[in-house]
Specification:
The protein is mainly alpha-helical. The protein is 47% helix and 0% strand.
C-alpha cells in the first residue's frame, strides 16, 4: 500500500490490474505474498485506493467473517478552527 500512496503510476496499475502490480513489484523490489494473498488480491475490483484497502481488509477467503468490521465513524463533538 505504501508504494501505491507514494507513486501514482503504481497506484493506477494496482487499481487496473492488481495481480500484475503485485507480481511486477515496485522500484526493483518484489512482494513476498502467499498463494492465499495473491488469490485475495486477484478478486479485488476497486476504483480508488481507499476501496482497494477496504476490500483487502474486509475479505478473507477462509473465514466466515471479514478480517475486520468496518463501521462509519461520527464526530462526537463539533470541531472549531482556531482564528
Amino acid at each position: 500500500m505504501t508504494a501505491a500512496v507514494v507513486n501514482r503510476k503504481f497506484c493506477s496499475l494496482l487499481l487496473s490490474d492488481p495481480l500484475q502490480a503485485v507480481t511486477s513489484g515496485y522500484n526493483g523490489e518484489t512482494f513476498a505474498l502467499t498463494q492465499e494473498e495473491v488469490q485475495q488480491i486477484r478478486t479485488i475490483e476497486a476504483a480508488t485506493l481507499r476501496d482497494f484497502v477496504l476490500q483487502l481488509l474486509t475479505r478473507s477467503e477462509n473465514a466466515e467473517k471479514p478480517l475486520i468490521e468496518v463501521q462509519p465513524t461520527a464526530w462526537l463533538h463539533k470541531v472549531y478552527a482556531a482564528a
